Structure formats: C-alpha cells, structure tokens
Amino acid sequence: MLALQLACGGWIASAVGAAARLGIADLLDDGPRSAADLAQATSTVAAVLSRVLNLLAAVELFEATPDGRYSNTEHSQALRSGDPHSMRNFCMLAAGEYQAGFGELMHCLETGESAFPKVFGGSVYEYMARTPNAAAVYDRAMDDLTRPVGALLAEMRDWSAGDLAVDVGGGRGTLLKSLLGAAPLLRGLCVDRADVCARATEDLKTETPDLADRLRFVSGDIFGDLPGNGDFYILKNVLHNWNDTSSPKILGALRRAMASKLDARLLVIEPLAAVAAPNTHQAVDDLMQMVICETGTTARNLAQMHNLLEDAGFTVVEVNPMRTGHTLMEAIPTV
Ligand SMILES: C[S@@+](CC[C@H](N)C(=O)[O-])C[C@H]1O[C@@H](n2cnc3c(N)ncnc32)[C@H](O)[C@@H]1O
Question: Which of 172, 232, 253, 280 has its CA 20 to 30 A from that of 95?
C-alpha cells in the first residue's frame, strides 16, 4: 500500500543517514562483511545494525549475500566518501537535521513559519555556527551538491578572461576549486561565515595544497561589505535560502561591491521553479525551502529571478540552463 510505504519512508531515511554516518559503504570497499564485523568496526550493536542493513538491502542500497554478509551495490557508491559522485554528507544532513525539521511540518503548515528554528532554536546558519560537528557535515553536504556544477561551469565559459573570481556564500570553495583547476591563471576568493572559512582554510592546506596560493577564504557577511575587486562574482544556491525581503539585500550588497568595477560579471546559479507540474525532486526541494530555510522562502521562476536582479541594479545578459538542473544567469551592473 503506497500510503503505508511512504509513511514509513522516514524510517528508511534514518537508516540511510545512519549508514552514511557510520561509513558502512567505505567499510565494504574491500568486499562483503558480516553485521557483527561491521558492528565491531563502528562501535554499534550488531543486533540493531543487522536490522538496519536488512532494511537497506531490501531497498537495494546494499546487498545481502547468501552467506549472511553485506556488500555494496551500484546505489551505495553514493555513500562512499571518496566517490566523485558521493552524496554521503548530504545524506547525513538530509536524514539528520533536515528530517528533524520536517518533523515539525505541521508547525510550518499552521503558521507559515520555517520549522527549523522550532526544532533547533535558530536558523540553519545560527545552529551551524554553534554546532561545529553538524556544520562540518553541512559544509561537505554542499560540496556533494556542488561538485557536478563546478565541473560543468568550468567548461561553460572562458575563465582566463578574468583574474579574480569571488564566490559569495561559497562554502568550502568547491566551485572555485573546479574553476581554478581549469584556469591556471585564475585566482579565487571565497566569502562565507567565519567558522566555515576557518575550517575551509585548514582543509585547503591538506586536501588541495596545489591551490593554496590561488584560493583564499575571507570571512564576511553576504548582507554587508563584500570585496570590491572581483572580475566575476558567483552566487550559487544562496538566494535559494532567502525570502523576497532578504534576497534583494544580498543582491544590494553585491551591487555595492561591484560599484567601482562596472565591467565585472555576476553569475547567479540556482535551481529555478518548475514551469509545469514539478517532479518529485523539484517538489521536495520546493517544500524544503519553506520548512528548513528562512520563513517565506519559495522557489523562483526565471521571470522572478530576472525581476529580482533588475530591481537590484543588474542587467541580465545571458541565461543558460545547466545539465545539473540549475540555471546560470549572467548579469552586469546597470549603469
Ligand atoms: C546553501 S549554502 C551554498 C554554498 C555554496 N554556494 C554551494 O552552492 O555549494 C549557503 C552558504 O551561504 C553561507 N551563508 C549563510 N549566511 C551567510 C552570511 N550572512 N554571510 C556569509 N555567508 C553566509 C553559508 O555558510 C553557506 O556556506
């Protein structure tokens, strides 16, 4: 019965989140292992872990072997840390804090307010700022979502034309790392909250030391003063989190930063609202914005994004759909 299956879907999500957190797919890298063995490796209770794995084998995320062990499947590759298409951290975030937020969906329905603050006592970013372990997962969850976009954006335009790309709300600099990898003369400046920049600066030294002399993280406020010397400004999946009161303020901050460099370009990369009936992914994302993000945040269509940019003092010069489902809008300051 579909209703029953869907109503229990949250339990499956919790099992996926637990497997991601425990690193089960990484532990199965070298071949099948028993629940007892995996429980020992993860300091968990074998009787519970075997049930979790049985559930995940039933939905084909893992496979139960005839001798009672478990192995990876094509689907569990997404839970492996090193996989280029890894979604391990996003699965932890989605099945963790976001799902807890969805637990207060009725609050959102009854008041129109975001449910996240009701559960966590503050917005996503207030919570992340005071919860370093969760914030480290959040940062890497954004990596998971952004890696494919970075690879695509690196191919979509000639980055050698400019020498400084500024990613505003750029997290761990995932997008900039892709661009810098493709354009050896390009430098990157990633602006984000102080704790994000501190973690990203440390990780840069160990994870991508070859980029350390061209990529810098600068703590800053997307609503405040932003660096004014960029050739390109990038805003990816940032407006997506803010309502129609806050979003113009973010674009206003960018417009002020670009006031002395009128030949600079702003690249806004967002998943836009579906024109026809949304598919499951789009519908989930749309609802997520209302439940998890700032109160009143909704998906915007192309015309709404256009208006938002024009009202903030930008002229949209190019619009390109991306294979990832995002749309790349390029704008210049209106003079
Ligand atoms: C949805 S994430 C997108 C990250 C990145 N652009 C990407 O697409 O992977 C939003 C980012 O905005 C940052 N952010 C939120 N509020 C901010 C603020 N007031 N000032 C600076 N950064 C902020 C968050 O820390 C987070 O890294």
Answer: 172
